Amino acid sequence: MNLSIKGYSTALFATWYFVEELGLLFDGGDGLMAGLLQKSRKINHAFISHADRDHLGGLLQFNQLNARDGAPFIYYPKDCGSFPNLERFFEKFDPHMAGTVWQSIVSGEEIEIKDNIVVKAFRNEHVPCASGMNKSLSFKVYEKKRKLKQEFLSMPKNELKDIIVNKGREFVTEEIATNILSYSGDTPVDDLSKWEGTKLLIHEATFLEKLEKHPERANRHSVIDEVFEMLSHSKVEKVILGHFSSRYSSSEIDKKVRELSEKYALDIPIYCVYPGEIFQQKITV
Ligand SMILES: [Zn+2]
């Protein structure tokens, strides 16, 4: 499957990623509408990772230009009070634009966004909160297909046909879920195997080095060395790194990526979303 991805992600300022073939948006930061123009109408499902303002600042205009009967859907972590407030404000501010469906989600929940395509939410540790609370989420996109079970693979066609007629197609097939795309949201690297097997991972890499002066800030985000360590432990096929701090230039980022690819002997395609720049790529997964 080809995924046309357009996005912007600079720490503190704005983050959004649009996946055209899936009608999918991850986060709704400022500049979303100015970057996508008419293409924004293709967004049917928007998943907002958390309530930091750089991840939702573009939603007012998104709603104003795109709300239609029963669409788009905006999903948000259940325990973020900001989103119900936004919904109420949008209703008052743009009463002519009813239609957007605001829906809270929790870790572990799956949302079907297209036939055979689901998005599943996972808690991350960006916003400290009690276990069981949902304030910051990551997302995995799965493509589901039914495949013939192992024991029926070598069965003659006539026999197989009889079984399907008698017992149904479900009996001879099993569901296979392929994790085609994942999005970290804002998060520290909290689990080296969290992204195991994803074909394309969009992960934040806010810092190129550990922040000795502000450990509390660094703890809520990823340091790029830790992201590479995680990638070297996981079978991730391709990665997009974003959410870099604006203190870094694109050449500093490229240099660090080269160093770390060598350090961790990592040989997968790595794309970077540079500070202040819109990213656009068609990527096969
Ligand atoms: Zn952020």
Explain what this protein looks like in three dimensions.
With 285 residues, this protein is an alpha/beta fold. It has a single domain, classed as Metallo-beta-lactamase, Chain A (4-Layer Sandwich), CATH 3.60.15.10. The protein contains 8 helices and 14 strands. The strands form 2 sheets. A 7-stranded mixed beta sheet has the order 6-5-4-3-2-1-14. It has a 7-stranded mixed beta sheet with strand order 7-8-9-10-11-12-13. β5, α3 and β6 form a beta-alpha-beta unit. The chain is globular and about 70 Å long. The mean pLDDT is 95. Zinc ion binds next to loops.
What is the gist of this entry?
With 285 residues, this protein is α/β, with parallel strands linked by helices.
Labels describing this entry:
285 residues; alpha/beta; Metallo-beta-lactamase, Chain A; 7-stranded mixed β-sheet; 14 strands; 24% helix; binds zinc ion
